[in-house]
Specification:
With 192 residues, the chain is of the alpha+beta class. It has seven helices and four strands. The radius of gyration is 19 Å and the shape is globular.
Amino acid sequence: MDEFEEIRNCLIEMKDLSALMIDLAFSSVMYNSEDIAEEVYILEERIDDLTLKVKKLALRAAKKEDDPESLLSIIDLADINERISDAAYGIADIVLRDIEPHPIIMEIMEDTEEELGRVTVRPNSVLIGKSLEQLKLPSKIGTRIIAIKRGDRYIYDPGKKDTIEEGDVLIAVGSDLDKLRKLAGEEVEEEE
């Protein structure tokens, strides 16, 4: 794979990551979720790594270019994505620093019928080996998977052919994530 193909792949991943981070950051504040805020922190570190990689690749590619200054736009785009991720981290940091959200945030939450969260697929899960098409989660339990974290890799906006594996972390949005947690084999605390 040449430098430009690697740069392209890194920039696509950065774009997808920064969009996911914004959603997660706002959700972490709205739901006062440290789990989601920590996910933003992890993603921000990945963006930092990708930014450095893009810059190194662009410098390497510049040696072969007739007009090396043309690669400045690539470096600028990587920097802009990094600033977006830094801003998302700043939003999520409100939760991690245990700052009390302003009452207006609670008002917004009351108007929101969906929650966003992280669900880990346990070894005893009925989800393992099934595709999103087979599971039909949006129609059956009112939950949509927006990303799957598999090891240190993310599958963004997974398609109906994507399958669930043991150990996957599902980033999901829906009206009742406890149903997904039960299917994933997680213990769910009953409300009293």
